[in-house]
Amino acid sequence: MNRELTDTFLVARHDVQDSMRSRRLIVWILLYVCVAVGATFIFSRVLRTIETHIARTIAVEPTKETGQVVSSIQQSDSVRRMVDDMVDDKQLANQILNLHPLVIFYAWFSFAFMPFLVIIISSDTIARDVNTRNVRYHLFRTSRPAYAVGKGISSALVLLIALTISAIATVVTGMLTMHSAITIPLLTDLLSFLVKCWLFNLSFLGIALMASQLRRSPMQAQFLGLGVFFLLLILHPVSASQTGPGLARLWQLGVIISPYSHVNDFWYPDITRFLKAAVWSLGLGFMYFFLGYIRFSRRDL
Amino acid sequence: MQFALDIQNLKKKYCKHIALKNLNLQVPKGAIMGLVGPNGSGKTTTFAIIAGLLSSDGGTVNVSGRGPFHPVHHKGLLTLLPQDAYIPGHSRVRETLVFYGKLQGLSTQDASFSADRVLELVDLTDRAQSPISSLSHGMIRRIAAAQAFIGNPEIVLLDEPTSGLDPHQVARIRDIIINLRGKQTLVISSHVLSEIEAACDHIAFIEEGVTVRQDTMAHVMQTQRQISVILANTLETIPDDILQSFPDITFNLSENGLCLQVGFTESASTAIINRALLPALLNAGIDIEEVRRGSNLEAIYLEDRKNNYH
User: Fold this and answer.
1) Closest chain A residue by Cα to residue B89
2) Residue B301 is assigned to a structural domain of this protein
3) Which residues have C-beta within 8 Å of that of residue B226, sequence separation ≥ 6?
4) Domain tally for chain A?
5) Which residues on B lie below 8 Å from A134 (Cβ)?
6) pLDDT tens-digit readout, A172-220
7) Which residues of B touch A7 (CB under 8 A)?
8) Which of A103, A104, A242, B264 is the most buried (most CB within 10 A)?
9) Predicted ipTM beyond 0.90
10) Which residues pair with B78 in a beta bridge?
11) Closest listed residue to residue B49, CA positions, set B18, B11, B22
């Protein structure tokens, strides 16, 4: 195997082991699980309240299983037409309406809020090592690309572990609070969205690692990561709303560089859309990582 | 002569502060070179540039005749003991050393063997499985020193290797260094000049980013034509008849009155001075415990600074 690849793998493996021993991974997982469990619990309570109100309004006995009423409503023609009109896409409407409410919630929650956690947790990954000068033990032994990419791979793996455990926690909490059974379609849908959520969040991991390579202080790196995150969060809807010829077309750049512009494709069931979204997410993640690396490759350590 | 390290006109600026200005250093293969200089003279910066951690603003660094250091092209050829770098506390001692060894290009087996060897060198075999956070400051410094000897690097850079160690461990590190003479090239930066004197065969004095003197230790110690006479009893003043009998000789009595520094001109030799001076001292009732050739490095360094730099 190429020496650089071997080094990248060594750095990644050591960093994952280090995360476990330093309890960083446990903190990550706990944070994800707490957020996922808390949000799922609130979601199921809200859903239960809505269903109880609906049952009382139409003067029937509420169902024991939360989500049953919503699932039935999802299948009604009037709701289907309404969702069709809302998303303006028959295929997407069909996909949403065929998903279990818990899966819809998990996917929406993961796409909307997980990036924030990724930024908060990963933005100091490399900055911490530079700040403590721990890099001085590594970077005469291996190259800076192997080190930085190894750190990135380790963060991506840790993110996958945290997301998987939080998905399991979501299912268990959902099933316990909604009193419904775990079915194979539910699990496969959840698994599919777990992978999609991971791929989508890799673009934000790229932003976090960019900040981590640009700043020496871990706190400054976190602030920078959050700053870029909120900038892109605002830039996406603003850029998307700007249309027109000439200089106004520059706003399209804002659409392209924002990971949120590509999240919709992850909701579609077809593979082409999925691949397109995955390529965009990975591409943006790599682009942000590389922007940070340009500085890291030349900086004094 | 083949140089393990050949540094020419090295420059480095931190914002407006000039850390190195035209630093030159040639370290022969297999030499143990001591870098001596006050705080902020540029020793740590020089090490960091050699190891590729800092960029230079000018000049050249040639490592092992293969150009400037690159971790891929010089894989496993150079190691560094950084001065104040942190080793993550949750890592286990042996595991960390094996990881560093593998990163240096060693196989898992060789890295494990090497980790065990260096742990034995620094007397920490019994703490191999301990988390680094459970070790004392001195032990962590020994781990840091141990990682610099993993594998078989041609060049080892040691920045303050004995700082924070107890006298027993200082002696141990000194022995490790002395035992490597001729096998590896070592460059050591230290403020403890007695350590440098005991371990090094080459020396360079650095002042404000410039090499003011570079020579073999033997030559530096001999160029000061001086002997030290260690006295058995305290002497309050040097007898007048001694001073009058040897007008070409300079005498300096140490503050504690137990060491007489005798300086003489180039025309005289140590043997001639001993033949004439020692009987005179004995006749004056001064008991002699020991006579040493030359001076110690500390005295030479301070004298050198006073005469040539300021």
Assistant:
1) A22
2) no
3) B261, B262, B263, B264, B294, B295
4) 1
5) 85-88
6) 887 777 766 678 888 888 899 999 999 999 999 999 999 999 999 999 9
7) 103
8) A103
9) no
10) B155
11) B11
